[in-house]
Amino acid sequence: MISNKKILIIKHGALGDIFMSFKAIKSISNCYSNITICSTNSGFKALKMLDVKFEKIFDNRGNLYETFLVLKKIISKKFDIVIDLQNSKRSSMYLCFLKIFCSSELNGTSFFANKRYIKKNLNEHVTKGLENQLKMINVLSPKKTITPSKSKSNHVVIIPGSSLKGKHKRWPILNFIELMNYLAQKKITSYVIGGKDEKDIVTLIPNNKYIINLINKSPWDKVKKISLKSKIIISNDTSAMHYISNLDVPVIALMNDDIYAIRNSPRSISSVVLKNKNVKNISLKKVINEVNKFI
Predict the structure, then answer these.
(1) pTM of the complete model beyond 0.85
(2) Of 168, 213, 222, 207, which is closest to residue 191 (Cα–Cα)?
(3) Which of 135, 183, 145 is nearest to 288 (CA)?
(4) Among residues 51, 59, 92, 258, which is most buried (max CB within 10 A)?
């Protein structure tokens, strides 16, 4: 049932965080039609890929005065419900301010939320936590429906890089290259995607008709088109992995064995996490054995 109540969603964060909030935002849009999102410039670039209509409040996390202007604008809008999907120290302070100066219903994990979700399981997946949080305001996730499997092309998608800050999350590029060559021998094409932060590996990718190097040439619309037809995605822990997981495409995620291997693992059907205390120590043989289940 669609309600015309005025809803504000607060969502900042890195690209991967934004992508992991997509399902929650879609659930909110199924219940409410009058939605505003408070985010950053980079956040809105990601959010435009959602099939959701919303107004914007830009919050580029500047100085104290700029933050005050953002809060003043939020108060002036007189939102019925403010939903904090960021759940950070910064957004908690926003809720504190809003609790004093407006009468909005506040939803989040913050102490200042009057519709507060308290995690019982600290290892809870990010998307599951947001789902449980939204239940506090009677926003429920739609039930998954089983759709006929789409015909797949004879290719895979490989994501061998990461952000510069996330270099410690990278499986060795030489292992990825061996994997690509193994797939090429089987006449399976590897689409290798990445962004500007992967310039250090772009020249290492083999020149082969079965290996398509799209590093720094893979905008999100192209990633979506290729991924939807892919047999499997093999990826480090990156924002692209989270984006593709939202497409319900199976992912083999190569991750360090830490809390993020639980909280940030891909949630798409048939996805697998291969993990080790040090991601670099995941064996090539183990990855190939898993890939063979899909090709």
Answers:
(1) yes
(2) 213
(3) 183
(4) 59
Give 55's strand partners: 36
User: Is residue 148 scored above 50 in pLDDT?
Assistant: no
| 206-to-76, 145, 178, 184, 195 alpha-carbon distances in Å | 56, 40, 10, 11, 18
pLDDT of residue 280: 97
Sheet holding 211-215, edge to edge: 211-215, 189-194, 155-159, 233-236, 251-256, 272-276
Between CA 11 and CA 45 the distance in angstroms is 13
Amino acid identity of 146? Answer: I
Residue 89 identity? K
The full 3-state SS of the chain, as one line of letters, equals CCEEEEEEEECCCCHHHHHHCHHHHHHHHHHEEEEEEEECHHHHHHHCCCCCCCEEEECCCCCHHHHHHHHHHHHHHCCCEEEECCCCHHHHHHHHHHHHHCCCEEEECCCCCCEECCCCCCCCCHHHHHHHHHHCCCCCCCCCCCCCCCCCCCEEEEECCCCHHHHHHCCCHHHHHHHHHHHHHCCCEEEEEECHHHHHHHCCCCCECCEEEEECCCCHHHHHHHHHCCCCEEEECCHHHHHHHCCCCCEEEEEECCCHHHHCCCCCCCCEEEEECCHHHCCHHHHHHHHCCCC
Least confident of 1-5, 14-18, 134-138, 174-178: 1-5
